[in-house]
Design a protein that fits this description.
The chain is an alpha+beta fold. Helix content is 27%, strand content 23%. The relative contact order is 0.09.
């Protein structure tokens, strides 16, 4: 009899222990633990079903553990009426989509379209249920996974991109790769929402060039958080505007060159957590500008100094990556040939110290005048107080034959009526206040510089920079962010950093641009 009691007591204890192990709740599970070195964990002895490795048409759906929701993109304005689904059958025997029982590998005929939320239920063999949501967005989805803390230095991670517009972009629905990833930016490193530099590598850790979203074939990419911009579009918007009317001075020799980046709004996930709206963009570098290898130079201005506004020089060392607020872009330390600060030093020193006659006679061979005209108009029309000397690249194509410097603006979050604190600003003219190069060109009227500005403005004001054209660009981005509901999701996780209504913010931007346009028109006509 004692043996029977002992047996029953042992059996009851095993059941109790098993129940305690299984009483975890879905909020503590991690159905898509795809980080480096991690594998999905399925509870043993559990009847709680989980939806793990959920795929649509072979592409991974991104998972947000905070809201217990999966994400999948469908082209804006289109729908997906027939598709195949897959999931891990060790964690769920079947799922319900629109209350239709579906097995792994089955074809589903329930329509999916942008800005839709679909309830999905994972079923166990005992018909226990766990409920998830499927969020259908219209933006590309980027999923990042790593078991390391992302910091200033590169760390290993995995990267997955699902592109809803892959057919129009002649790309692929899904691109997966190993990457090295690091925090990007200077001031932006202190923001809660971080930007990232992404370097695509192969299994051996070597650079691997890949075309993303139909853009250039390269290994270096940027995930721009756009945190200080309450409209989450200013940098992308202004770069698009710049690209619409300016290109490198040597475009005839390099027809694929661009004097700015291209990019697309995307939604980003890190280790099964939704991070919000980012802009996945190309990098502004030698390859983008098609600077001649070994013979061209690129310098990046990232601070306000005498050297960046051309009012003074200091000693330099070719062993240093920085000089007077400038940073080497190409060539960099360790490159062949070695970088030489002498090119930039001599240019800044000439602009500062040359007599008026020498400046007038020589500057047209030292800088590209047409680029200077476009740049002056551009920084004034967007009120780029952070871009008239800082946040620019100053480059030349080929020291042997085309060594005239030209500008490439970047990082334009603090424009279009917004400042570096995300606060609205009034309309004002920058003129040439913080740029002695532009100031001398204008005041000395080198090569009829004033007349060139007027002639160029008269073309641009009715075309690329017209009120209607810029307003349409603003509205296009508003629709992308609102019609996909991405802006609402951004606002929910980053409250206070975005405007409560994107329509209110874009209305402000449109009205601000209209007033700025009138100011610039008056300023240029009065030169």
């Amino acid at each position: 009899m004692k043996q029977h009691y002992l047996f029953y007591g042992l059996l009851i204890a095993m059941v109790v222990i098993g129940c305690k192990k299984n009483n975890t709740g879905i909020s503590n599970t991690n159905p898509n633990s795809n980080g480096v070195g991690n594998k999905p964990k399925v509870p043993i002895l559990s009847t709680t079903p989980q939806l793990i490795n959920f795929k649509i048409n072979g592409a991974n759906c991104a998972y947000d553990s905070i809201t217990n929701a999966y994400y999948y993109p469908v082209p804006i304005g289109a729908s997906l009426s027939t598709y195949t689904i897959n999931f891990d059958t060790t964690a769920a025997k079947a799922i319900l989509i629109n209350n239709i029982r579906t097995k792994d590998g089955a074809t589903v005929n329930y329509e999916l379209k942008t800005n839709q939320q679909v309830e999905i239920k994972a079923l166990s063999s005992l018909n226990d249920v766990t409920t998830y949501n499927l969020i259908v967005t219209g933006l590309p989805i980027v999923t990042l996974s790593t078991n390391r803390t992302i910091q200033d230095a590169d760390v290993k991670a995995s990267f997955n991109l699902v592109d809803p517009d892959y057919q129009a972009q002649n790309s692929k629905l899904q691109i997966s790769s190993n990457i090295n990833i690091a925090i990007r930016g200077a001031t932006s490193r202190g923001y809660p929402k971080l930007s990232y530099a992404v370097h695509i590598v192969d299994a051996a850790g070597n650079d691997s060039n890949v075309s993303l979203l139909g853009l250039r074939n390269d290994n270096s990419w940027i995930l721009d958080a756009m945190y200080i911009d309450r409209g989450r579009m200013r940098n992308r918007l202004c770069t698009d505007i710049w690209n619409s009317f300016n290109n490198v001075p040597y475009i005839a020799n390099e027809p694929t060159a661009l004097n700015g980046t291209r990019g697309y709004m995307s939604e980003v996930f890190l280790n099964n957590k939704y991070l919000g709206v980012y802009c996945l963009t190309e990098k502004l570098d030698r390859k983008q500008l098609q600077i001649k290898k070994q013979y061209g130079n690129m310098y990046k201005a990232d601070n306000w100094t005498n050297e960046t506004d051309f009012t003074g020089v200091s000693a330099f060392s070719n062993l240093s990556k920085t000089w007077g607020g400038w940073e080497l872009a190409y060539p960099d330390l360790g490159d062949t040939p070695a970088p030489d600060w002498g090119y930039l030093y001599n240019e800044v020193n000439f602009i500062k110290t040359a007599t008026d006659d020498d400046f007038t006679n020589q500057i047209k061979s030292r800088v590209d005048i047409n680029n200077m005209v476009d740049f002056l108009i551009f920084v004034n029309i967007i009120r780029g107080t952070d871009n008239d000397n800082k946040n620019t690249f100053f480059s030349f194509y080929d020291s042997r034959s085309a060594n005239a410097f030209f500008y490439s603006p970047w990082d334009m979050d603090s424009t279009m009526g917004g400042n570096a604190a995300g606060i609205h600003t009034d309309n004002t003219i920058i003129g040439t206040t913080d740029n002695y190069l532009l100031d001398r060109l204008l005041n000395l009227n080198v090569g009829n510089f004033k007349g060139l500005i007027k002639a160029r403005w008269n073309v641009l004001k009715t075309n690329q920079l017209s009120k209607a054209t810029v307003s349409a660009r603003i509205e296009a981005y508003r629709k992308i962010l609102v019609n996909t509901n991405a802006f609402a999701r951004e606002r929910s996780i980053w409250p206070g950093s975005v405007d409560p209504s994107l329509t209110d913010e874009t209305s402000f931007m449109t009205n601000w641009y209209s007033l700025q346009y009138d100011l610039v028109d008056s300023y240029i006509n009065g030169l």
